[in-house]
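Entry 14. Ran structure prediction on the chain below.
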Amino acid sequence: MYYKLLVSPLSDYGVVREPDLPADMSFQAGGVITDALPEPLQFAADFTLEHAPTDYMGVVIPVLSGRLADELTSLGVDNLQLFDAVLENEDAGLRWEGYKACNVVGLVSCLAVEESQATVVLPPLHSFDPADLVIDSNQAGGQLFFRLAEAPRVLLMERAIGDRIMDASPEFLGLEFRDVEEV
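Output, structure tokens:
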């Protein structure tokens, strides 16, 4: 059983610009990044002193707090390639360190195409309403955390891992878990 992991829609603040990367480099392709990256990766953000960064943010490049990255690793998630990251609000002169840009290694093809009412866009990519997402959990192969091959922006997390994250104290902020239907 799986959750779809999203950035919480409750935050009015977040990453407003991701670092410029070479055109052939992707944090969504599911492969290991072998090229050297600037360290740390710099993300422009609009967080403030009153509204500090959350534990999970970013769309194209997921950004995790060091605490969340450590928790995922301690729960057995072993397919994360982590890069030091800094969040900066240049207008306010603020900077936050201790974050990780996260490359989730692995694309898993488990979309239940018919049940998701998906249409092929450019094989293997599919288009579907995210609310209609249905996966074949047998095809997920017991993976703990992965990108959906048919829609690589979709991150899926094994339910037991998500439950542990949601039950953590102090709580992790900025994450939203949505149930995923399965066949």
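Residues 142 and 158 are 8 Å apart (CA to CA). Will compare against last week's run tomorrow.
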